[in-house]
Amino acid sequence: MLREEIKSNLRNVVSEKRYRHIIGVEETAAHLAKKYGVNEEKARVAALLHDYGKEMDIFQMQKICAENFPLETIEYMDQGEILHGYVGAYLAKKLYNIEDEEIIEAVKYHTTGKRGLSLLGKIIYIADSIEPGRIFPRVEEIRNRVYENLNGGILFECSEKIEYLLEIGARIHPYTVEMRNWLIEMEKKEK
Questions:
Q1: Cα 104 from chain centroid?
Q2: Residue 56 in this model has a pLDDT that exceeds 90
Q3: pLDDT(191) > 80
Q4: Which residues are in the HD domain (predicted)?
């Protein structure tokens, strides 16, 4: 089974701490998939792959991104935090022959989000933030909001993330801002 193969291989490419995080994201994604009517198997596979390249050497990440995603990653070549999603998408295809674009998209954009992200993509994005091992201010509020209303919970998390990045003087990826604005537009249309 693909999931078992990925789990087995993960043990060789990530630390025990990262592995526990990935398993937490897998379980959270599975719960959210059930709640919001998404294929649970796809959610589990995407969750297992989301940080597959997270602990890879930055130079390897840069090489993969320069060769496969040059336009999307050129400005972020010094930020493994951004690059590892693209690397994970690349490895999903290369190592596991995954061609399902929903899974690839979910892995690629799990850190930044993006406007028009699929339901599976949204689930992986937010599961990464709210898995049980995550402890940060207002995480419980984000969890509660996500289980009440997925888009509303993600919008709240996005706003919190942007506020935090502004406070510490970090760069904010434009895809995160675009996703937040898109979710606001969707919320207005629903009212």
A1: 11
A2: yes
A3: no
A4: 18-133
| CA 42/CA 160 separation, integer angstroms | 28
Name the residue among 10, 185, 30 with its Cα closest to residue 92. Answer: 10
DSSP state of 76: G
Q: Which residue type sits at 98?
A: I
Record the tokens describing residue 1, joined without a space: 């089974």
CA atoms of 45 and 188, how far apart (whole Å): 33
The residue count of the chain comes to 191
Domains and CATH numbers, the chain: 2-190 (1.10.3210.10)
Tokens 């402890």 identify what position? 135
> For 140-188, what is each residue's pLDDT tens digit?
999 999 999 999 999 999 999 999 999 999 999 999 999 999 999 998 8
